[in-house]
Amino acid sequence: RQHELEEKERQREHEERQRQHDERQREHEERQRQQELQEKEKQRKHELDLAQLKSREAPAAVSEGGPKPTKSFDKSFLARRKEGEDIDTFLTAFENACKLHRVDPADRIQFLTPLLDSTAVEVYSRMKGAEAGDYELFKQALLREFGLTPEMYRKRFRSQRKTREVTYLQLVNRAQGYTRKTCLSCCGLEPPGQEVK
Questions:
Q1: Angle 47-99-50 from CA coordinates, rounded to 5°
Q2: What are the helix (H) ranges across 64-197?
């Protein structure tokens, strides 16, 4: 009889510990979900701001006979690159911002350098003469420095998995992006059915 009571008490303690563990796990998942929602909301707001800016500027460009290169670039639309941030994502965002602001490709390097972290500045400092003013050469040097090769893109493509945090649409978009970047970095070609961006 005493043994049965002790066993029941141990079972209750075990169930209580399991319940507390499950509760902590749920709280952790809820905090993660809240953080993800906040990040998505920030991203959505940023995209809305960019779309509003684009829609305000579009009529002026049409009325003046098409897009005009500009020397102005509002750096507040693109934050300075942080150490450890994916360089490929950063450069893609930078190029999109340049297109939005109609920055001439020849002027990109002067707008990019103030946004770089110390690692990227070190790569830039190794460039000499005319190379230092060529955005495409600098971009290639950065991609090499950070190991963004066709093989790395293939590995990223192959490692894609559906998780709770990743929607099917995000998974497809990432896979398409890795395919495009593999083709571009390997032989400078877009995959069939894609236009050069």
A1: 20
A2: 87-100, 108-112, 118-125, 135-145, 150-158, 168-187
Q: Is 101 in contact with 72 (CB distance < 8 Å)?
A: yes
SS3 83: coil
Alpha carbon distance 88, 181 (integer Å): 10
Tens-digit pLDDT profile for residues 85-139: 778 878 888 888 888 888 888 888 888 888 888 888 888 888 888 788 888 888 8
What pLDDT does residue 194 have?
47
Angle 50-89-133 (CA atoms, 0-180°, nearest 5)?
Answer: 90
Distance, in Å, from the CA atom of 112 to the CA atom of 72, rounded to the nearest integer, reads: 13
**C-beta separation of 80 from 93 below 8 A:** no
Cα–Cα distance for residue pair 26/20, rounded to 1 Å:
10
CA-wise closest residue to 148 among 94, 66, 196, 91: 91
| Residue 81: strand, helix, or coil | coil
Task: Kindly tell me if the per-residue pLDDT of 49 is higher than 50.
Answer: yes
